[in-house]
Write a structure and sequence with these properties.
Chain lengths: 233, 80
């Protein structure tokens, strides 16, 4: 795996992400500054980490989405390259037009920082092959604006094409409003683009990969990616 | 030349800030407030003097950055 982690001013989860990529894949990712016009040669995974790029000015992710490096990410994705956006990274990918819809203020108006349960909807993707369909994983969230929304046609298309990979759920995999912490439409926590090579998700799987932390449920995502890219190479 | 771009949330999009302000106005005893929606105003100074060109430029600015048209509408005004 030759991962590239994008770094924008105000991002603060890039080191968690880099550490996880290295722990799980055994390879250190390159850190790519937002002003770059190209990704390092041979990059096979681009990760847009979480944080507060540009202090969430204007709209979450809006300014980062227009950074020079995002043109390189756009052409990388257009060629089928894998892109993972977590938290602010998900917001940035939506603002960049790489994913449909938008993340708005949490329904309860509060910043939510806690562990949540996610139901893995599909396992036949490069991002979720480390899990089983229907499996429930525990990972943390930390966001004020994670309430996914889009117009009715977009939601129907996402659901119809099976592009929702993660949903907020109860520990036993039940999806209902009590477990949908931020009020996202259909409890959507993570979606892919129409080609299935760009994933955006609000929760932080990168923070649950070491047993010393108390949970390793996020490991499957990175192990699956490593496996997928190892076979592709 | 001075110009203004006003960005507002589309109908039906949750606006918790507007709701909070609405609640505060009611708590302050400001009578007759039915609802509040919060938006953004961008006052922009333009270099050129052609109002037609200015409008094109402002629309470009709004589409490219100032508004997210998934959830927001915008209005541009050339103030002269």
């Amino acid at each position: 795996m030759k991962a590239a982690v994008l770094v924008f001013p105000g991002i603060n989860r890039e080191r968690d992400m880099a550490r996880t990529l290295e722990i799980v894949s055994g390879q250190k990712p390159s850190m790519v500054w937002h002003a770059e016009h190209e990704l390092p040669a041979g990059t096979d995974l681009v990760v847009v980490p979480g944080g507060f790029s540009y202090g969430d000015y204007l709209r979450c992710g809006a300014i980062a989405a227009r950074a020079p490096v995002m043109d390189a990410v756009r052409s990388f994705a257009a060629k089928g390259g894998l892109v993972l956006g977590v938290c602010n990274g998900f917001q940035i990918l939506c603002e960049a037009g790489l994913l449909p819809g938008v993340l708005v203020r949490n329904q309860n108006l509060k910043f939510i920082c806690r562990d949540v349960f996610l139901r893995v909807e599909k396992a036949d993707t490069p991002f979720t092959r480390g899990y089983n369909a229907g499996q429930v994983i525990r990972v943390p969230v930390a966001h004020g604006e994670g309430n996914y929304t889009a117009d009715a046609d977009t939601i129907a298309r996402l659901e119809g094409e099976g592009r929702v990979l993660f949903r907020y759920a109860s520990p036993d995999g039940r999806v209902d409003k009590d477990w949908n912490h931020n009020g996202a439409i259909n409890a959507i926590a993570g979606i892919v683009n129409d080609r299935g090579n760009v994933l955006g998700m609000m929760p932080h799987p990168e923070n649950h990969v070491e047993s010393v932390i108390g949970a390793t449920d996020g490991r499957g995502l990175f192990a699956g990616l490593t496996d997928h890219l190892g076979k592709a190479a | 030349m001075k110009a203004r771009v006003t960005v507002t949330l589309k109908t039906g999009i949750l606006d918790p800030q507007g709701k909070a302000i609405e609640g505060a106005l009611k708590a302050l005893g400001v009578a007759g407030v039915a609802s509040v929606r919060q938006g953004k105003v961008f006052d922009i100074e333009l270099e050129g003097g052609d109002p037609k060109q200015a409008e094109t430029l402002l629309k470009q600015a709004a589409d490219k950055l100032l508004a997210n048209t998934v959830i927001e509408n915008y209005r541009v005004e050339v103030l002269g």
